[in-house]
Design brief:
By secondary structure, the protein is of the alpha+beta class. It has two domains: about 10-155, Aminotransferase class 4, branched-chain amino acid transferase, N-terminal domain (D-amino Acid Aminotransferase, Chain A, domain 1); about 165-325, D-amino Acid Aminotransferase, Chain A, domain 2, CATH 3.20.10. About 20% of the residues lie in helices and about 25% in strands. It is built from seven helices and 17 strands. The protein has helices at about 50-55, 75-90, 95-110, 185-190, 195-200, 245-260, 315-325; strands at about 20-25, 30, 35, 55-60, 60-65, 70-75, 125-130, 145-155, 165-170, 205-210, 225-230, 235-240, 265, 280-285, 290-295, 300-305, 335-340. Helix 2 (about 75-90) crosses helix 3 and helix 6 crosses helix 7. It starts with 20 loop residues before the first strand and ends with a strand. The model has no long low-confidence stretch (mean pLDDT about 95). The structure holds pyridoxal-5'-phosphate. Pyridoxal-5'-phosphate binds next to helix 6 and strand 14.
Length: about 350
């Protein structure tokens, strides 16, 4: 398979249109069989449910070329399950897990020419999503839905090494207790845009959100979960019903325990404790782990001992082990790697 003429290592994180995407429609109470299409555009009625009341959920995962030349995805079953949970919470029909994995397989195989080569640092990002399609003017769930999955090649997240981030404690809240913080829905991102735009204007890379009820506990950022490392090398990650259950974070917890022999605590994390941690990282599919060097709370700076030039040692081990598993350099736990070809 001849690859597209793309400068893989200089790609950013942006949309590059590829040749094929997968579409399945839910009408009359059932999903149709689904097809690959070359048509990248969607035509919708002006009153479509998604446009009026934001009835839409999404996922994000990647396909990689491994060291031995296979094309694989990482734990797509967990993306399928999470999308089912997200859909159920927004009164949407669930797209079955086997069909989700089949759609991933078909789209990656059909766009093989866009799967970046091993060693380029680039990956093929997959975006499954679903939305209410028919006209809805009174507030209620749509009747008809579309599931769609497209892919786009994305560049290495850290060009020239991972530089630690500076984040701020946000005055905005991300997710209410008993709200929608634990599902992957566009609505959680729409309301985070003002907070992230103003954070960037003020020189911060990301927002740290606290629990809205007491504003004493760490939740997550706009799109990544926290992992902390204590001074005696324990991994600590916040537990809360309004955090999005990151697949990367859950995988890193397993890697910490089973590959690195580290103790892991999943528990409420008080903001008060953060000043005592040795390392801090943000985890998600896009970067795996982004190290945090500084956390600013209304002018008060917490400087992590790992500093502003490189990842802390435990964060680095976690990063290298998980990316090693994804790229096929380190044996994976049973079921983690879905081989496409
Ligand atoms: C997608 C997402 C994450 C990261 O989840 P992964 O499954 O690791 O990619 C974390 N937080 C939020 C709010 C997210 O939407």
């Amino acid at each position: 398979m001849e690859k597209k003429n793309i400068d893989w290592s200089n790609l950013g994180f942006g949309y590059v249109q590829t040749d094929y995407r997968y579409v399945s429609n839910f009408t009359g109470g059932a999903w149709d069989e689904g097809v690959l299409t070359e048509d990248a555009n969607i035509v919708l009625n002006e009153c479509a449910g998604v446009l009026q009341y934001a009835q839409t959920v999404f996922e994000g995962l990647k396909a990689y070329t491994t060291e031995d030349g296979h094309i694989v995805t990482f734990r797509p079953d967990l993306n399928a399950e999470r999308m089912m949970a997200s859909a159920a919470r927004l009164e949407m029909p669930v797209f079955p897990k086997e069909r989700f994995i089949d759609a991933v397989t078909q789209v990656v195989a059909a766009n093989e020419a866009y799967v970046p080569p091993y060693g380029s640092g680039a990956t093929l990002y997959l975006r499954p999503y679903m939305f209410g399609m028919n006209s809805v003017i009174g507030v209620k769930p749509a009747d008809d839905y579309q599931f769609r999955l497209f892919c786009t090649p994305v560049g290495p997240y850290f060009k020239g090494g991972a530089k630690p981030l500076t984040i701020r404690v946000s005055d905005f809240d991300r997710a209410a207790p008993n709200g929608t913080g634990d599902i992957k829905a566009g609505l959680n991102y729409a309301m985070s845009l003002h907070a992230i735009v103003t954070a960037h204007e003020e020189g911060y890379d990301e927002n740290m959100y606290l629990d809205p009820k007491t504003r004493t506990k760490v939740e997550e950022t706009g799109g990544a979960n926290f992992l902390f490392v204590t001074r005696d090398n324990k991994v600590v990650t916040p537990k809360s019903g309004s955090i999005l259950p990151s697949i990367t974070r859950r995988s890193l917890v397993h890697v910490a325990q089973e590959y690195l022999g580290l103790e892991v605590e999943e528990r409420e994390v008080l903001f008060e404790e953060v000043k005592d941690f040795a390392e801090c990282g943000l985890c998600g599919t896009a970067a795996v782990i982004s190290p945090v060097g500084k956390i600013v709370d209304h002018g008060k700076e917490i400087c992590l001992p790992s500093g502003m030039t490189e990842m802390g040692p435990v964060t680095r081990k976690l990063y290298e082990t998980l990316t090693g598993i994804q790229m096929g350099r380190i044996p994976a736990p049973e079921g983690w790697i879905h081989v496409i070809k």
